[in-house]
UniProtKB/TrEMBL annotation:
<feature type="domain" description="tRNA methyltransferase TRMD/TRM10-type">
    <location>
        <begin position="1"/>
        <end position="234"/>
    </location>
</feature>
<comment type="subunit">
    <text>Homodimer.</text>
</comment>
<keyword id="KW-0489">Methyltransferase</keyword>
<dbReference type="InterPro" id="IPR029026">
    <property type="entry name" value="tRNA_m1G_MTases_N"/>
</dbReference>
<dbReference type="InterPro" id="IPR029028">
    <property type="entry name" value="Alpha/beta_knot_MTases"/>
</dbReference>
<dbReference type="InterPro" id="IPR002649">
    <property type="entry name" value="tRNA_m1G_MeTrfase_TrmD"/>
</dbReference>
<comment type="similarity">
    <text>Belongs to the RNA methyltransferase TrmD family.</text>
</comment>
<feature type="binding site">
    <location>
        <position position="118"/>
    </location>
    <ligand>
        <name>S-adenosyl-L-methionine</name>
    </ligand>
</feature>
<comment type="function">
    <text>Specifically methylates guanosine-37 in various tRNAs.</text>
</comment>
<keyword id="KW-0949">S-adenosyl-L-methionine</keyword>
<dbReference type="GO" id="GO:0002939">
    <property type="term" value="P:tRNA N1-guanine methylation"/>
</dbReference>
<feature type="binding site">
    <location>
        <begin position="142"/>
        <end position="147"/>
    </location>
    <ligand>
        <name>S-adenosyl-L-methionine</name>
    </ligand>
</feature>
<dbReference type="InterPro" id="IPR016009">
    <property type="entry name" value="tRNA_MeTrfase_TRMD/TRM10"/>
</dbReference>
<keyword id="KW-0808">Transferase</keyword>
<keyword id="KW-0819">tRNA processing</keyword>
<dbReference type="GO" id="GO:0052906">
    <property type="term" value="F:tRNA (guanine(37)-N1)-methyltransferase activity"/>
</dbReference>
<keyword id="KW-0963">Cytoplasm</keyword>
């Protein structure tokens, strides 16, 4: 998968050199490009923001540097030809659709994702409208709260999407037994020793009875989901 990120803080993404995603990059499974939005400015101060039309607090990201940067990324992919099949451009935004595990799974099958990290009060609306004339565009929220910028949201999305790309996580079975994969939260996990600080591992997990273990885990999943996230059980 090719991933391009547009940001005014490219150093945020240095962490993509380490751990499983770093290995995936070394193995050529993920090809990453990080673009500094300020490189597309023309003034001495490398300005990317300006005051909002209509008044109001804060600053808005100017369209010109975004247009120039995205033009470069999208034309390199040849997206003008058929934008239903070309890159998918994702702008993290608290006003977007909420990111979920099923969205991560869907996005893990894309060939080319482009992430545009907003800052300040966000990006001029025309950037979304203009980009949508030549690529698929989605506004995606990490949750119902407001971050200072899109970088943390993009890191979370890349991690969730990246680990679902075949070859990134060593044991693919570990991916299907996780929270949200079957609509429920995961059951509690234990490892050795069997007793620690007076706390014992549930005896069923030491029984060797696989059917009983599966039934216990299922019951724990349901109980935890009912208690912590009853909304997940709504039809
Ligand atoms: N004024 C915007 C609003 O009320 O919708 C919030 C702007 S926020 C301070 C700056 C940037 O952070 C946004 O453009 C977006 O890129 C990112 N951001 C903030 N909260 C987010 C969230 N919950 N999910 C995804 N991105 C978020």
């Amino acid at each position: 998968m090719r991933i391009d990120i547009v940001t005014i803080f490219p150093e945020f993404f240095d962490v993509l050199d380490i751990s499983l995603l770093g290995k995936a990059r070394q193995a050529g499974i993920i090809d990453l490009g990080v673009h500094n939005l300020r490189d597309a400015t023309t003034d001495r101060h490398r300005t990317v923001d300006d005051t909002p039309y209509g008044g109001g607090a804060g600053m808005v990201m100017k369209p010109e540097p975004w247009g120039k940067t995205l033009d470069g990324i999208l034309s390199a992919d040849g997206s003008d030809a058929d934008h239903e099949k070309g890159p998918l451009v994702i702008f993290p935004s608290p006003a977007g659709e909420v990111f979920t595990q099923s969205m991560a799974r869907e996005l893990s099958t894309e060939e080319h994702l482009v992430f545009g990290c907003g800052r300040y009060e966000g990006i001029d609306q025309r950037v979304f409208d203009d980009t949508a004339t030549r690529a698929r565009v989605r506004l995606v929220s990490l949750g119902d709260y407001v971050l200072n910028g899109g970088e943390v949201a993009v890191m979370a999305m890349i991690e969730a999407i990246g680990r679902l790309i075949p070859g990134v996580v060593g044991n693919p079975h570990s991916l299907v037994e996780e929270s949200h994969e079957d609509g429920l939260l995961e059951a509690p996990s234990y490892t050795k020793p069997a007793s620690w600080r007076g706390l014992d591992v549930p005896p069923v997990l030491l029984s060797g009875n696989h059917a009983a273990i599966a039934a216990w885990r299922r019951e724990q999943q349901l109980e935890r989901t009912r208690r912590v996230r009853p909304d997940l059980l709504q039809p």
